[in-house]
TrEMBL record:
PROSITE patterns to which the protein is assigned, alphabetical: FAD_PCMH (PS51387), OX2_COVAL_FAD (PS00862)
Domain of life per record: Bacteria
Domain FAD-binding PCMH-type: 40-208
Lineage: Bacteria, Bacillati, Actinomycetota, Actinomycetes, Micrococcales
Family the UniProt entry places it in: Belongs to the oxygen-dependent FAD-linked oxidoreductase family.
A molecular function GO annotation: oxidoreductase activity
The protein's name in its UniProt record: FAD-linked oxidase
Organism from which the protein derives: Paenarthrobacter aurescens
Cofactor(s) annotated in UniProt: FAD
Cited SUPFAM superfamilies: FAD-binding/transporter-associated domain-like (SSF56176)
InterPro entries: FAD-bd_PCMH, FAD-bd_PCMH-like_sf, FAD-bd_PCMH_sub1, FAD-bd_PCMH_sub2, FAD-linked_Oxidoreductase, Oxid_FAD_bind_N, Oxy_OxRdtase_FAD_BS
Keywords recorded for this protein, A-Z: FAD, Flavoprotein, Oxidoreductase
Amino acid sequence: MQSHASFSDVSELQLNVHGPVFTPADPGFAPEVAAFNLSTQHQPDLAFGALDAEDVSAAVRWAAERGIPVSVQSTGHGATNAIEGGLLISTRRMLELSIDPIEKTARVGAGVRWKAVVELAATFGLMGLCGSTTDVGVVGYTLGGGLPILGRKYGFASDHVIAFELVTADGTQRRVTKDENPELFHLLRGGKGNLGIVTAMEFHLFPAADLYAGGMYFDGGYAPEVLRAFREWVPSLPVEASASMAFLRLPEMDMIPEPLRGKFVIHLRYAYQGDAATASEVLEPMRSCAPFMMDATGPLSPTQFDTIHQDPDQPVPVREHGFLLDRLDEQAEDALLRHFGPGVESPVLLAELRLLGGALAKSADGEDVVGGRDAAFSFFMGAIAAPPVLDVLPTVFSAVHEDLRPAANAGTFVNLHGHFVDAEDRERPWLPSARERLRKAKAELDPKNMFSFGHVVGLPVIDQTVLLEDVVTAGGDAVLNS
Ligand SMILES: Cc1cc2nc3c(=O)[nH]c(=O)nc-3n(C[C@H](O)[C@H](O)[C@H](O)COP(=O)(O)OP(=O)(O)OC[C@H]3O[C@@H](n4cnc5c(N)ncnc54)[C@H](O)[C@@H]3O)c2cc1C
């Protein structure tokens, strides 16, 4: 299918919405489509900054009438592959946020980041199930399952959603709960952006008391000792405890604290909710496995979540590759040390093992499509995506994946899958049965596969190469943004 939108069509869009519309010729276009991952340059034909659900609905209807594909972006933290062509709807202005402290629930607009929820919830002694950084969008994270810091205790963030408000491919606004549109509700929990644009979401919060968490750093020379201790330690962890360890080759950058700048270190991350003395005792085997450079574990407020993983808080150009492990055995340990151990030159700045299990392994109703419930660890690599390293990264990632294959799980976790290389890889986060359910729902709700960007099932039906050609070449920014 081919489609065009004329200059007057775009003016019609502008008349039907309240938020700004940008063509590539407009100075506001580049900041509107910019992603957190600087190596991904989205190039839609048109960008639209929605203010509310009505705006999203009007824009999707406008695109549907013209057969134009639609993508969605909030913070751009999940920009693993570039969006090319079509209409990009940016939700970053949709910042509705309210908390009901009695019911312990939150309601967020599609553009809200975890930081805002964490800070407001903390004033009521509550917390949401955010992951390693509060900079990501609550909705995009949760649609991908949402692997929280305290996931072993509480499960995935998507296990605790009460309602989604969704705009489907025909522009219809739907409230989706386990009673209203149940199959859609199940498929949105882990189904990412396959089925429409979520404009708001309601979910449960949890008591924030008694957190004990933080990170420990070891000199990279102790990687064999720390990795072995980690492997032997994690099976004993109670569900109240979550842990991960990362091989970090830290760049010489001002954003890195002085003692760690330019160093190869092992970063152990730990979080426990419960009695502080027990939390500390549980961590003891890791404290004594090797001399550490820094121990920043202790009682923690939920507003300090970001200090546990110390993820970058400024946009960076990265290429990522993630998969799941069924086990961490001696063979996997040897493979990790061959690729990331002392004395090895690797362009991979971060190679991270995150312990899964506990409540993450059980779906409350068995109906959602979150991948990775059966895996023991998430394994994730990230590297700066700049020449000359960029060219070698696919080979480096494949070599590591191949060496870890005996312990690897066939699936991936969509939020930490990273850059997909082809259509098959793009669908890998979902088990075949989940893919079939997503395809069936898509055939009903989005038969032309309008939402065909990012991690989705199926191939685009719309030929994106000719879309809005005349608008782009007309350079109509003066009228569009007047
Ligand atoms: C530094 C860093 C740390 C991270 N840590 C974790 C972690 O601990 N646990 C975890 O689970 N994930 C983690 N992630 C992954 C993150 O959750 C995903 O990248 C997620 O997609 C980010 O959502 P976003 O809206 O911020 O990003 P965006 O790039 O804006 O969106 C990514 C995708 O989400 C979907 N999406 C976003 N908004 C909507 C919407 N309103 N309706 C429909 N679909 C939508 C779309 O498919 C879109 O392409 C991390 C990512 C980074 C960069």
